[in-house]
Amino acid sequence: MKYHKSNFSQSITRRDALKVMGGAALSLLFGYDHSKKLIAQTKKPNVIFVLTDDHRWDAMSCMGHPFLKTPNLDRIANEGILFENAFVTTSLCSPSRASFLSGQYAHTHGVIHNYTPWNESNTTFLELIKKAGYDTAFIGKWHMPGEGLPKLRGLDHFITFTMLSGQGVYYDCPLFIDGVETERKGKYITEDLTDFALKFIEKKRNNPFCLYLSHKAAHYGFRPPKHLNHLYDDVDLKLPKESDIWIPFTNANYITGQILPMNFMYRNYCETLVSVDEQLGRIIKKLEEMNELDNTVIIYSADNGYFWGEHGNIDKRLAYEESIRIPFIIRYPGLIKDPGRRAKQMALNIDLAPTLLDILNVPIPANMQGMSLKPIILSDKSKGRESWLYEYCSELTSNVPGITAVRTENYKYIEYQNNAWPSELFDLTKDPGERNNIIKTGRGKVLLKELKKEMERIKIETEFKPLENM
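RE: above sequence
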């Protein structure tokens, strides 16, 4: 669907007029109090999208993690829908974040790695939601390069940081608060960003609000707040069998700069995620106090997954499940009639924007390449996508070559730029750990033809351009 400003503005006006007339009629028929309740049931919901960094899909207690406790994430999953098969189309900070905002693949929005700037001609879902009558705020990690801060259309408030090329630091991280750089001495960044989020949420207003809360946590550095430091010192980490505490120093993993023992980093990572969960709990509590919890669409996700020794790796980028698979949870009682469901359909980061627009009944622009998850939210029997494209552009700061892959419900085919590494094909039903490359087997050769054909179909459909040539 194409977005037409004039028609959309007229439709808002007519709907608002009908609400007023309808409210007056209800007051006459049923009395003020009863009509007020009925009108409240039809008011626009608020929106809160919480985006974390490097949070892989299984690092939550509701996903069976052996020791990590995330009661607030568990709560929104139990009261909403958890997409168990959610993924990013590029497993890297900047491209993935641009995909969440735009609903597009990296080869379309143009942010192909952490060193390509955001194109300000791109349209974000925040801009469209603002035009639909919402108060809007972006609070937290932007992490897309460019000259100065971006001039994002459709924002009432923009709070972010530029330290360490946009990565920020866990303590004392200066913030740009609506363009003004401000020192934050003594502040822990996850708590600090949540403080600003709460101020925005509780602000007196006439409009519904849309908040994009983008955390630094749990990116490398992995520093929990002081009260959670050493929380998991005495637990059995249960790292993967192929993991080893010295993996960060081998296999060229040192290029990413993560050269600390694996067990030390993993403990801090989990403690840092507990802090994220705590701060989510503060937001839930505030919404409850305001009687707005059930009138708020809450979505929680992450910009990519993370390796903890699987395939001999740490960090992300590669097309294996540990790198590309993310948490994706939606809580909104106004739409979800079967809370606690675990959706099996595949969801992507590019689906966030069209999903939110669809929930809010805002027209979805034709250039958004994701699909709305609203039909799946309404019915578990709704069919999801059958396949999708993974893409990664090589960087000077990584030893990983460019990657193009196609994933279906049961299979994954991965090819590497200039045949730098051998192509791979995995049967995900029989080999979920992706350890047995079947590309040269008889069955693999048959599947390879089908998967290559599907990859080309998606490339044509999405007007794919090789990332290295952009």
